[in-house]
Write a structure and sequence with these properties.
- With 334 residues, this protein is an all-alpha fold.
- The chain is built from 13 helices and two strands; from the N terminus they run αααααβααααααβαα.
Length: 334
């Protein structure tokens, strides 16, 4: 296969992975909004546990069919990943409850600079000026779209802080573990989905009762509400898988930046399906700014030096690093 063909093949796969993530992510948001708003199923943590239970069943089937190979993932790394992921889910739910919608959106936007910080510190990634500016334009556009009233209190700030850092670390770990242990998206999901499902199904009912003052076992289950729960779980399988695929193919920062396209689509679809929030002028302007920023980021980060990992630091001794050599070595070279 020629170099041009390889590039075209990679672009096609990247585009397919990204579209898969956008379709499933937007789909599950619309379904969950209908489930909670129309049928009153407000047990978000328990629902996420069901999502991972369905994903676990999918991974077991794929393993039986030979699509998931046996691979090694240290228990310590697995525990860290599950802790980050679960703190992310619970933190986001608590942040939404304790903070205004405006501050919740600001917290979500702050995941991009936090993800950048993690890549710079842990992976020695360096960003060009254009790449940094494009990220700022995306943040500005999404902020114009989504941030309205902003109020915050001490416990809300702590919840948002935990949610932002745990989510950023969880997404960083997806890329890090795939790269470090050379395992694919299916394989990593096979490792992480079962403990996430077990822990969330165990903690979920108590967390939901604390957040909503309602018990999931006392909910009035109807045929339609159960069908929406099942549909949500089916879509969640694709959402979880596509997230692992995208972060594995890109990075956590790219996933966050381009992921705000989903925010824009949710706003549009929410207007079309629910009609409660109108697309006023400042929302439309924000969308346009964000889309320009995303296009600029895609171009800037793909350019030479736009976003690159620096080589590891040299292990040479300090005197060698600055060009000083011992006298006998110098004499030999002379």
């Amino acid at each position: 296969m020629s170099l041009t063909s390889k590039v075209e093949h990679k672009v096609a796969l990247d585009t397919a992975a990204w579209m898969f993530n956008i379709v499933t992510s937007v789909g599950i948001i619309i379904v969950n909004k209908a489930l909670m708003a129309t049928y009153g199923f407000t047990f978000a943590t328990s629902l996420t546990g069901l999502h991972f239970a369905a994903t676990t069943m999918m991974t077991l089937i794929l393993k039986r069919l030979g699509y998931i190979q046996s691979s090694h993932l240290p228990v310590s790394d697995l525990i860290k990943f599950v802790l980050f992921a679960n703190f992310s889910i619970v933190g986001m739910n608590v942040s939404l409850m304790w903070n205004s919608v405006g501050f919740y959106q600001i917290a979500k936007l702050s995941m991009i600079p936090v993800s950048c910080f993690l890549e710079v510190v842990l992976d020695r990634v360096q960003y060009s000026r254009d790449t940094k500016l494009s990220i700022l334009v995306v943040l500005l556009g999404v902020a114009i779209c989504t941030v309205t009233d902003v109020s915050v209190n001490a416990k809300g700030f702590i919840a948002a802080f935990i949610a932002v850092w745990s989510t950023s670390l969880q997404q960083y770990f997806v890329h890090y573990l795939q790269r470090k242990y050379s395992i694919g998206s299916f394989d990593l999901l096979g490792h992480t989905a079962p403990p996430q499902a077990a822990s969330l199904l165990l903690v979920g009912p108590f967390m939901d009762y604390w957040l909503t003052d309602k018990r999931v076992d006392n909910y009035n289950y109807t045929f339609m509400s159960v069908m929406f729960v099942v549909l949500s779980c089916v879509i969640a399988i694709g959402t979880n898988l596509s997230q692992f695929i995208c972060i594995g193919r890109f990075t956590a920062v790219s996933f966050q930046v381009l992921g705000h396209m989903k925010t824009i689509l949710v706003l549009i679809l929410g207007f079309l399906f629910f009609g409660k929030e109108g697309l006023n002028l400042h929302v439309v302007v924000g969308m346009m700014v964000a889309i320009v920023g995303m296009m600029w980021y895609g171009h800037a980060s793909s350019q030479p030096g736009g976003k690159e990992r620096l080589p590891p630091p040299s292990n040479h001794k300090p005197e060698e690093a600055i060009g000083l050599v011992k006298s006998n070595e110098h004499d030999e070279k002379v």
